[in-house]
Amino acid sequence: MYNWLIVGAGFAGAVLAERLANERGERVLVIDRRAHIGGNAYDELNEDGILYHKYGPHLFHTNSQQIVDYLSRFTEWHPYEHRVLAEVDGKLVPIPINLDTVNSLYGLNLTPEELPSWFAERAENIPDIRTSEDVVVSTVGRELYEKFFRGYTRKQWGMDPSQLDKSVTARIPTRTNRDDRYFTDTFQAMPKYGYTKMFEAMLESPNIEIRLEADFRDVRRSVEFGRMIYTGPIDEYFDHCYGKLPYRSLRFKHETLETAQHQPVGTVNYPQTNDFTRISEYKHFTGQQHPKTTITTEYPSAEGDPYYPIPRSENADLFRRYEARAREEKNVWFVGRLATYKYYNMDQIVGQALATFRKLNEQI
Ligand code: FAD
Ligand code: UDP
Fold first, then answer.
1. Ligand 2, closest atom to CA 57?
2. Which residues pair with 4 in a beta bridge?
3. 8 lines ligand 1 (CB under 6 A)
4. Is the minimum distance from the CB of 270 to ligand 2 under 6 angstroms?
5. Substitution candidate for ligand 1 out of 346, 348, 350, 357 with most atoms within 8 A of CB
6. 120 C-beta neighbours (distance < 10 Å), count
7. Which of 113, 119, 80, 79 is nearest to 96 (CA)?
8. Is 43 within 8 Å of 53 (Cβ atoms)?
9. Beta strands of the chain (E only): which ranges?
10. What predicted TM-score, i.e. pTM, was given to this entire model?
11. Considering only CA atoms, which of 347, 350, 287 is closest in space to residue 61?
């Protein structure tokens, strides 16, 4: 008999398992249908001994000291600031668009003082910014939008940016200085020995039992438990009773090359060419020294594991119907990217899980 069944051993499930087991001393069973813990942040050494991320590049960044302090109980850190180049018009230029991006693409010599008016001359006046197209076109104009955002977004999401909520491309800022970091968060680092090692430390407790390759649908009747945390897709929990919630998927092509370095930065984006979106090279993130290098190419797809909730209003409406059902479910908490249908980064999921713990700890 377990006090808690936790479905999913990703960030949401692992944080809650750790808190319930260590703070409340409760007996927790964590299950995952995959053969490993860590959810989408899972990493491992491949056959050449290079650390890579099975589900694509995961860069940890946050502005929350509380989240850093919490995770630092389970890992040391390798400082790393992510940089991304985009291949545009045959050149590799910084994304987010910054001063060097514009000067390099257009053969200009603008200063940081001049760039805002250069953007303003091209930006379109859109009074009500609703879509992912509006956000970019109203900031840098249509030409840069088409070069950097339109093609990439159409590949990644299988739809035009004009059909997607503004929050998607709003993840990518525009800069007038030369800062070429992908993120500007106060804390940016990789778990020193990898994400999986960090998860192992989180789940290391006599009160926690882990069962892998165990699907909730098969386990739910054979395990005795008091309460439950569910971090899988919310529509699946309710047998898609209101219809399927769309999640976007990816196919990952992992390759190890007979060269020490493949590309100049951690990730190169391909907004104009190819049927993949980006290529990432792990040694940039991890600082690992090795004569070979491992890269991952991401091919977006409608079929496959659910990786991204798709932010658009009709999906939000459908999610709200499931959410209303979820509120009626006794002794079940829905947490994480798939169960709350939120396009959240890892730190936001940790924050959401810690907040859930605080609330339930007050209630019960
Ligand atoms: P998940 O990690 O998806 O874990 C849910 C787990 O539940 C899964 O392991 C799944 O197998 C299991 N599960 C589901 N249903 C069942 C069931 N019925 N029975 C048993 N088990 C079940 N975030 C960042 O901060 N930085 C990044 O650079 C970054 N890059 C990303 C790149 C890609 C390609 C993707 C897809 C995501 C990226 N993210 C990044 C987001 C990050 O992966 C998520 O925020 C985080 O992993 C969400 O954690 P979670 O626990 O909510 O979900
Ligand atoms: N995006 C784009 N071109 C780029 C980078 C991003 O159009 O070169 C858009 C695209 O819609 C993408 C979104 O911005 O899905 C968010 O990008 P991010 O790198 O944050 O995506 P993630 O790492 O979550 O896949």
1. 23
2. 28, 227
3. yes
4. no
5. 346
6. 11
7. 119
8. yes
9. 2-7, 28-32, 43-45, 51-53, 60-62, 77-79, 84-88, 91-95, 187-191, 208-212, 225-230, 247-257, 267-269, 278-281, 293-301, 308-309, 332-334
10. 0.98
11. 347
Whether residue 279 contacts residue 252, with contact meaning beta carbons closer than 8 Å, is answered with no
Q: Residue 185's pLDDT is what? A: 98
- Tell whether ligand 1 has an atom less than 6 A from the beta carbon of residue 12: yes
Structure tokens that stand for 101 in this block: 């991006």
How far apart CA 279 and CA 216 sit, in angstroms, is: 34
The pLDDT of residue 56 is 98
What value does the CA radius of gyration of the chain take, rounded to a whole number of Å? 22
**Is-contact 199 38, C-beta < 8 A?**
yes
Ramachandran angles phi, psi of 166, nearest 5°: -60, -25
Ligand nearest to the CA of 223: 1
Asked whether 168 lines ligand 2 (CB < 6 A), one says: yes
Instruction: In whole angstroms, give the CA distance from residue 285 to residue 59.
Output: 8
> Which ligand 1 atom is nearest residue 11's CA?
51
Q: Is 219 in the pocket of ligand 2 (CB under 6 A)?
A: no
pLDDT, residue 78, reads 98
> In the prediction, which pLDDT does 100 show?
98
pLDDT score at 184: 98
Task: Classify domain 2-37+203-245+310-363 at the CATH superfamily level.
Answer: NAD(P)-binding Rossmann-like Domain (3.40.50.720)
> How many whole angstroms from 145 Cα to the centroid of ligand 2?
12
Three-class DSSP category at 197: helix
Distance, in Å, from the CA atom of 126 to the CA atom of 137, rounded to the nearest integer, reads 8
Across the chain, which has 364 residues, the per-10-residue mean pLDDT values are 98 99 98 98 98 98 98 99 98 98 98 98 98 98 98 98 98 98 98 99 98 96 96 98 98 98 98 98 98 99 97 98 98 98 98 98 96
* CB of 269 sitting under 6 A from ligand 2: yes
Is 170 a pocket residue for ligand 2 (Cβ < 6 Å)? no
Q: Where are the domains of the chain?
A: 2-37+203-245+310-363, 84-170
Is any atom of ligand 2 closer than 6 Å to the C-beta of 86?
yes
From the CA of 268, the nearest ligand is 2
